[in-house]
Write a structure and sequence with these properties.
194 residues, mainly alpha, Single alpha-helices involved in coiled-coils or other helix-helix interfaces, AhpD-like, 2 domains, 10 helices, 65% helix
Length: 194
């Protein structure tokens, strides 16, 4: 019996029916992560949409940026917490625990980032990302200035906005279809690194 990916009755294609490039990508996921994230499997019914999702995700989260990978995952977690997105909180909470080696910090960010012991730069980043999530029409120059004051350049400010915007879109899709996180994420990186 296969696990349920979403509340929609859209059949997941067999991996062998995907293009050779997508089969290779799924194999790399298994090699690096030990699993194929359910978000990818859920998108697999439309390989064009899957490729677009992977492309923008990889660009925002893995490509060179004015933000560290940890900061990008912090944005993913804080935005997903604001949106109460079970899938993204679970998956990106696991990634943040892994990147920081500090499960307690990652959990506090997931529960209430304002209570986390963060440096001014990361506090400004998360404040901007959450305001963009809650009240986008209220964003203004003062919000960008706060990021500049925290040491971010114009490119990094763009990246904060782009990552927050992507996770707002992704959260809404995951919530709309009740996307289920991979069970492995719940247990990942729960012990501090020695």
């Amino acid at each position: 019996m296969t696990e349920r990916l979403t509340a929609l009755d859209i059949p997941e294609p067999a991996e062998a029916d995907l293009s050779p490039a997508m089969q290779a990508y799924f194999a790399r996921c298994r090699e690096k992560l030990g699993l194929v994230p359910n978000v990818l499997r859920a998108h697999a019914f439309d390989e064009g949409k899957l490729a677009a999702f992977i492309g923008i995700y990889n660009d925002l989260m893995l490509a060179p940026s004015g933000l560290t990978k940890t900061e990008r995952e912090m944005i993913a977690v804080a935005v997903s917490a604001e949106n109460r997105c079970v899938y993204c909180l679970t998956a990106h909470g696991a990634a943040l625990r892994e990147l920081t080696g500090d499960p307690a910090l990652a959990e506090v960010i997931a529960q209430n980032w304002r209570a986390a012991p963060l440096p001014a730069r990361q506090r400004a980043i998360l404040g901007f990302a959450v305001k963009l999530t809650r009240t986008p029409a209220e964003m203004g120059e003062a919000d960008r200035a706060a990021l500049r004051d925290a040491g971010l350049d114009e490119r990094a400010i763009w990246d904060v906005a782009a990552v927050a915007a992507f996770f707002n879109m992704s959260n809404r899709l995951a919530s709309a279809v009740e996307m289920q996180p991979n069970p492995d994420y719940h247990h990942a990186a729960r012990s501090p690194r020695a």
